[in-house]
Amino acid sequence: MLRVSRFGSAYEVAATLVAEMSADQFGEFSASVYETARLVRYAPWLAGHPKRVRFLLDQQNRDGSWGAPDGYGVLPTLSTTGALLSMLRGPPAANGSVIGRHRMIDSAGRGLNRLAGWLNTGATVSLPDTVAVEILVPYLVGEINEFLAGHPPPELPHECRRRLNDHPDTDRRLLTTLRAAAAAGEALPTKLMHSFEAFGDAGAMRSVEPKNDGIGCSPAATAVWLSDPARRTRHLPTLRYLRAVQDRDNGAVPVAAPLATFERAWVLSTLAGVGLVPPGHRRLARQLHSAFGEFGVAAGPGLPADADDTAVALCALARLGSARSPDCLLAYQQSDGHFACFPGERTPSCSANAHVLQAFGACLATDPARSSRYRGTMARLAAWLIDHQAANGSWQDKWHASPYYATACCVLALADRGDDRAADALDRAAEWVLDTQRPDGSWGRWTGTPEETAYAIRVLCGSKTVGSRDATTRAIAAGRARLLPMDEQAPQPSLWHDKDLYTPIRIVRAERLAALRMADVHLRVAGG
């Protein structure tokens, strides 16, 4: 039986994951700087406010920014700087005694200087393709400019009071149009409710009601909706939701909650995909079945159904011996053969399309008589994925900052295609992974991480065309040796895309477990 260092056997770890998920209706996700700052901005009345402010101050980088490199810091830096400025508008005695007004002034000033360097110079940083970035960035730039034009804190240095320019990758007219529609009481697309904080004026709030006690599966959106004091007395379940999603230690909140369906689908699909089906999975499988509607599955309440979550849930159920028809996925199929995550999607997702391909394969494996109906769909989808492979052999994706995630998704989806184009794509992906391994045996975009190391190992193990090569075996062995002692509890960069980067903690644990299991199988076979 596979051993997993001090964490116990693979089946023990898998059983623990399943037990934890069964007892948790929210899911386990990292704290979001962006989302927490919106609570500081809109819900200073909510218990835990001083802890949230301290959390934000402690998260600031040395250069004055918040968040990750390569443009990922723009949104959390805007959100946090705006939140601090909102707190500093009142007289010093009103808001400086508990947390430290001088520290907030210094933090906000450094944030403004960092933002001016990004937005007011010719060296504008690019924006990553995160959720609603084209709406949220102009909304937050406008908020900060309004604070600076009104009554900025007198202690704020004058060089920090420069009006911020709009980012050239955004168009304020889109935000203006959507705000006008919301103010008129028009219904916005369901997916925009997740970013409702950008539209939360009185007109918009009259046309929105909570779903499962929150707005758009978002603490920030819910906080804006509850900014009306009357709502806080009339809608106690919504207030309880906002209290429940907080971290007990620091008051911070995740970028979305609850996401139990998303978490359960991904963990179960990953575990079952490597033969780990621990006790307790049947109850979770029934819950996945109950989450299906006409258009499949949504990641959480208040979000629309989408092709990605639907595909992963279908794949999980098929691998657990409880398959259902994949027909609901056809609603997302586009004319060029790929599948959109949502209607009106701005950019397609390679990882979501890889999951769709896997879902068809897993479902039809249990019902071969139906396979001819989907053969053409699967062939076109595989060709689309191969056409979107980068020249270096990797794939990039809109749902994750690391190319190792998208590459692992695509390799695992194409591994069973069996044609020459797919074999060549797998070969090039494996070569890229071999070329990018770090000297310590890990992989990662910014630094070596357990998550990305797990994806890289899965690429090498899934690329059957190079599976027996000595270089591949050595890389897998080095990666496994590095992955075993890597501390999952140590701070690691968040890599998954929502409004802010986040970590789905149990999903990453499942990926690590699957990678170790695949590595052991590969090394055992390679060793004869």
Short structural description:
The protein is built from 22 helices and two strands. The protein has helices at residues 10-22, 33-42, 49-58, 74-87, 92-95, 101-119, 133-149, 172-183, 202-206, 219-225, 229-234, 236-244, 260-273, 281-290, 307-319, 350-365, 371-387, 403-414, 420-435, 450-462, 470-483, 505-526; strands at residues 496-497, 501-502. A hairpin with a 3-residue loop joins β1 (496-497) and β2 (501-502).
Task: Please explain how this structure is put together.
With 528 residues, the chain is an all-alpha fold. It contains 22 helices and two strands. It has helices at 10-22, 33-42, 49-58, 74-87, 92-95, 101-119, 133-149, 172-183, 202-206, 219-225, 229-234, 236-244, 260-273, 281-290, 307-319, 350-365, 371-387, 403-414, 420-435, 450-462, 470-483, 505-526; strands at 496-497, 501-502. The chain has a two-stranded antiparallel sheet with strand order 1-2. β1 (496-497) and β2 (501-502) form a beta hairpin. The protein is globular, with a radius of gyration of 24 Å.
